[in-house]
From TrEMBL, chain A:
SUPFAM superfamilies in UniProt: CheY-like
Source organism phylogeny: Bacteria, Pseudomonadati, Bacteroidota, Cytophagia, Cytophagales
Chain coiled-coil ranges: none
Keywords: Phosphoprotein
Pfam families: Response_reg (PF00072)
Positions where 4-aspartylphosphate occurs in the chain: D57
Protein name per Swiss-Prot or TrEMBL: Response regulator
InterPro entries recorded: CheY-like_superfamily, Sig_transdc_resp-reg_receiver, TCS_response_regulator
TM helices/strands, residue ranges: none
TrEMBL record, chain B:
Highest taxon of source: Bacteria
InterPro entries: HATPase_C_sf (IPR036890), HATPase_dom (IPR003594), His_kinase_dom (IPR005467), HisK_dim/P_sf (IPR036097), PAC (IPR001610), PAS (IPR000014), PAS-assoc_C (IPR000700), PAS-like_dom_sf (IPR035965)
Domain PAC: 435-489, 558-612
Name of the protein in question: histidine kinase
Enzyme class: transferase
Catalysed conversion reaction: ATP + protein L-histidine = ADP + protein N-phospho-L-histidine
Residue stretches making up the PAS domain: 24-76, 127-197, 250-320, 363-415, 486-557
EC numbers on record: 2.7.13.3
Residue ranges occupied by any Histidine kinase domain in the UniProt entry: 630-845
Alphabetized GO MF terms: phosphorelay sensor kinase activity
Originating organism: Pontibacter diazotrophicus
Keywords from the UniProt entry: Kinase, Phosphoprotein, Transferase
């Protein structure tokens, strides 16, 4: 399973990557320090290289999570078929949750730190190919 | 009988005979003459005896007598002849002789004095002759018929008239030359005349196709009570009858003419008697002419005696000149236009009913009286609007007299330069369409003065509804218009004396400004008159967008308000609110604009300060939000990491490399948490000090030196160059720590984000130390950033724009916070690959 983690915080990436690896050591995890870097890779990849799951932090320099979501909006349909996007943020701000209503292709929002239960739930959804909002 | 007796008797007879008895010898000597000779010839017989007869004879008769005597000498018969003797007293005495020659050659003769006979005979002859002449030469036809009805005599006129010979008439009945019907008429009258009656009748007959008419008289010639014949005298009256008929016809024709003329007509003879009245006169005077013809007019119309008609007619007759006059006839309540023509026969009078006309005229006169006395101007024009009449009021108003303007079109000479001709065209069209119109218009007097008039034009119509002309009434409203215009201006001024008022024409050129304008802007009317206000008032900082909006609105001719920066004459900038209202004329064209200017600098300043307060509040609020964000995101991020790592550690083998690594990361997270907490402390400190931090005179150069020395190591390490273009001794009143922080952050950023491609150069420059504040730029030639991507987040807390460089995203936030705390602000411009330039402004407090 291919997974993208987009986060400007090294510590947070270290944590997320190891938490995911504990659950499934076979995962193909790629990390990006800004939305722009991730987009570059996404647009360059063929269908097969599109990740099944993408974790996106909101607060980043250059292109933050919102900017990334805006850039992905035109691709909404293709993404929804192929890729589940999860927002992974340390923010507890409820305005972020409200703002996410504008991006229906986002599968869910997870507050940092990511926990084993979150990962398990995501994987089980992923396996059953069904999608629903995870909270 | 005895011979003696016989002789005696003979002697006696001779003596007493009234005739002369005498005897003459053969030689002509008188032998005997009776004594009667004395009575007849004046001579005694003795005076005559032995004298030759010729001594007593009229000399003219000598030859005749001698011849006669000789002639009958040879005949035995008695001869009678006549000759004339001269009386002793000289007069002629005719004597008729009977004589006989005897054998003794003696002529015995008896002579009778024929004086008496001769006299009566010659009288008779004369009368006969006279009659004859009268008869023959009478211009009338005369003929005589005997009892048998035969014509015994006919005069030459008859012969001539009938063109027959006398022989054809004499002893013929009248029927032989008269046409049968006339012959019968003649016969009938003849019989009556024979019975002793005189008769007169008209006789008409045709001769050679010509009808002749004769006035004929037949009368009997009576001798001794017995009608012996009948004389007829016929006077031809054909031409008379013809002329009479002609006269009658002409009279009839004249009468027809008189009857047919629509004028009423009558004639009066010399005695003022009606000789003719036509039916129109009958109608107008309400009379029946049969009762008036032949009657004296003044007896028939007693009320008119010595009245108007009476005077005029008498005047006409007296002078022999025609008269014309208008008069009222009370009898039938009419006004009459009368023309009377005197002639030899009397006077002919024509008259017309002009009651309507007179009434109309009286009406007009009344109106005209009103029109002429009114102070309003009144113009009466024909349908082509050409003047027929104007009143005195018109002359008073305009200065033009009727004689000058008759036949002209009023607008041609009353309108002038400023007259709204377009508006007039509109009303003119209405007017010519027969609509009554009223309008106000600027006219010009003859002397060129402006004259505002309220004009009312009413069409007048003929009987068929066609326009006859126009009646125009003008009222001088110059004062009203002037005062109204003044009032309009004044009212505007009065409404707010402090407000400036500009009145411009339709093109926007200033016509008038009030004192408020001068007070506000410093410009007087004479300075701005004829110019566009914008030329003087607008300046450098006037917003072009507002000006073009104003232009658009002016073009549209709508009311609008605009707020813009204007400049007073002194150059001082001020905010003005302009209310601009177009003024329309009656036909909807913009005539003027009125602009009311309000100096709203104070309001604008208040607004600005309000805006600033709002901005401050917003800033505080946004600080608050950022602070929340800081807490919720940046403070929580290391906490979350720490929590996650703590959790991860429980799942790891304590002896694994990952365990140690995770522990180290956990340590970092906690350090991070500490840093954030320190930041929060810094921020809160700045915030709390807002507006009441310690301020002192800070030398920018001194602060920069401190900054350079504290960053000396990294700056020198990267080979940086510092270019100082600050004014000598430039200082600001500020918090020294903040100023230090600002330049420290700038310089450390410059070092951190320097370009790898070139040596770092940092320039600091001041832009004058104005009365308002100090402007300083800080620029580097570093890597720069994408201003578009950075959006306006560059000065926000924890916003970072470089992934490859370490940074917390707090430096520029602090710069901004410090400056704002001191009442200043910061702006940035940057270009990737070229560098970044910060511009800070510190106010003078």
């Amino acid at each position: 399973m291919k997974i993208f983690i987009i986060d400007d915080d090294h510590l947070s990436i270290f944590l997320s990557r190891n938490m995911l690896a504990i659950e499934d050591a076979t995962l193909d995890i790629k990390t990006f320090l800004s939305g722009a870097e991730a987009l570059e890779v996404l647009f360059a990849s063929d269908e097969d290289n599109i990740p099944e799951v993408m974790f996106v932090d909101l607060n980043m320099p250059i292109m933050d999570g919102w900017g990334l979501l805006d850039a992905l909006s035109p691709l909404e349909y293709r993404l929804r078929e192929k890729c589940s996007i999860y927002i992974l943020t340390s923010s507890l701000d409820t305005s972020d949750t409200d703002r996410l209503q504008n991006y229906p292709f986002v599968s869910g929002l997870i507050h940092k730190p990511i926990k084993s239960e979150d990962i398990e739930l995501i994987f089980s959804f992923q396996r059953s190919q069904s999608k629903s909002l995870v909270l | 009988m005895k011979p003696d007796q016989a002789l005696f008797d003979f002697e006696k007879m001779v003596i007493h005979s009234l005739d002369i008895i005498g005897s003459i010898d053969l030689n002509g000597y008188i032998r005997y003459v009776s004594d009667i000779s004395e009575d007849i010839l004046g001579y005694q017989s003795s005076e005559m005896i032995d004298h030759h007869y010729s001594d007593f004879l009229h000399p003219d008769d000598l030859l005749d007598t001698e011849q006669t005597v000789r002639t009958f000498y040879d005949t035995p018969e008695k001869t009678s002849f006549e000759n004339r003797y001269i009386h002793k007293e000289g007069h002629i005495v005719p004597i008729r002789w009977y004589g006989v020659w005897s054998e003794d050659n003696t002529l015995y003769c008896v002579g009778r004095d024929m004086t008496k006979q001769r006299k009566s005979q010659s009288r008779l002859e004369e009368s006969e002759q006279r009659y004859r002449v009268l008869f023959d030469n009478n211009p009338d036809v005369v003929f005589i018929e005997n009892k048998e009805g035969l014509v015994t005599e006919a005069n030459q006129q008859l012969v001539k008239s009938l063109r027959v010979s006398e022989a054809q008439l004499i002893n013929c009945p009248a029927s032989s030359f008269l046409p049968p019907d006339m012959a019968a008429v003649n016969e009938r009258y003849l019989q009556q005349a024979l019975m002793g009656n005189s008769l007169r009748f008209e006789f008409e007959f045709e001769i050679n196709g010509e009808t002749r008419i004769y006035d004929t008289i037949k009368y009997p010639v009576i001798v001794k009570d017995e009608v012996v014949c009948v004389q007829t005298i016929a006077k031809e009256i054909t031409s008379l009858v013809h002329s009479y008929n002609t006269i009658k016809r002409q009279a009839k024709r004249l009468s027809n003419i008189f009857e047919s003329i629509t004028n009423a007509f009558f004639t009066l003879d010399k005695e003022w008697k009606f000789s003719y009245i036509n039916c129109e006169a009958e109608r107008l005077l309400a009379i029946e002419r049969a009762f008036y013809i032949g009657e004296n007019a003044w007896q028939k119309f007693p009320i008119e005696e010595n009245g108007v008609f009476y005077r005029h007619y008498h005047h006409a007759v007296a002078t022999g000149k025609a008269v014309q006059f208008e008069a009222y006839y009370s009898g039938t309540d009419v006004w009459l236009d009368v023309r009377a023509f005197p002639s030899e026969e009397g006077i002919s009078v024509y008259f017309d009913d002009i009651t309507e006309k007179v009434k109309a005229r009286q009406e007009l006169e009344k109106l005209s009286l009103v029109a002429s006395k009114t102070t309003n101007g009144v113009i009466i024009t024909n349908r082509a609007r050409r003047i027929e009449w104007v009143n005195e009021g018109f002359t008073r108003l305009t200065g033009y007299r009727l004689e000058e303007v008759r036949g002209q079109i009023p607008s041609d000479f009353l309108h002038g330069q400023k007259t709204d001709k377009k508006a007039f065209e509109v009303v003119k069209d209405k007017m010519e369409g027969g609509e009554p119109v009223s309008f106000e218009i600027l006219n010009y007097r003859k002397n060129g003065e402006e004259l505002w008039l309220s004009v009312q034009v009413n069409p007048t119509y003929d009987g068929n509804g066609g326009i006859l002309g126009f009646v125009t009434v003008q009222t001088d409203i110059t004062d009203r218009v002037n005062s109204q215009q003044e009032l309009e201006k004044l009212s505007l001024v009065a409404s707010s004396t402090d407000n400036g008022v500009i009145i411009t024409d339709a093109c926007g050129l200033t016509e008038w400004v009030n004192e408020g304008f001068t007070k506000t802007t410093g410009y007087t009317l004479s300075e701005i008159a004829g110019r566009k206000p914008g030329e003087l008032l607008q300046g450098e900082e006037t917003e072009e967008a507002t000006v073009s909006m104003m232009r658009e609105k002016l073009k549209l001719g709508v009311h609008f308000n605009a707020m813009l920066i204007n400049y007073k004459k002194s150059g001082e900038k001020f905010w003005v609110s302009m209310d601009i209202t177009p003024v329309y004329d009656t036909v909807g064209t913009v005539r003027q604009f009125i602009a009311i200017l309000k100096d709203i600098t104070f309001r604008k300043e208040a607004e600005t300060s309000l805006l600033k307060m709002t901005q401050d509040l917003y800033a505080k609020n946004s600080d608050q939000q950022q602070f929340t964000y800081l807490v919720s995101h940046n403070l929580r991020a290391p906490v979350a990491n720490a929590m996650g790592l703590a959790n991860l550690l429980t799942k790891l083998d304590k002896n694994s490399e990952l365990y140690d690594k995770s522990l180290s990361v956990l340590n970092q997270s906690i350090l991070q948490l500490d840093t954030v907490l320190k930041d929060i402390n810094t921020i809160l400190t700045i915030r709390d000090s807002n507006g009441n931090m310690d301020q002192e005179q800070v030398s920018i150069n001194a602060v920069l030196e401190q900054v350079l020395s504290s960053l000396q190591e990294p700056f020198q390490k990267c080979g940086g160059e510092f270019v100082n273009r600050l004014e000598e001794g430039i200082s600001v009143k500020a918090n020294k720590a903040y100023v230090y922080s600002i330049f420290y952050n700038f310089l450390s950023n410059a070092i951190k984000y320097r370009s790898e491609e070139r040596a770092l150069v940092v320039r600091v420059k001041s832009f004058g130390n104005t009365s308002k504040g100090t402007l300083i730029s800080f620029s580097d030639n570093g890597s720069g950033f994408d201003m578009k991507k950075a959006n306006n987040n560059i000065f926000k807390l924890y916003k970072r724009f470089h992934v490859d460089k370490k940074g917390r995203g707090i430096g520029l936030y602090l710069v901004k916070s410090h400056l704002e705390a001191m009442g200043g602000h910061v702006e940035v411009t940057s270009k990737i690959g070229f560098g970044t330039r910060f511009l800070i402004y510190l106010p003078k407090i």
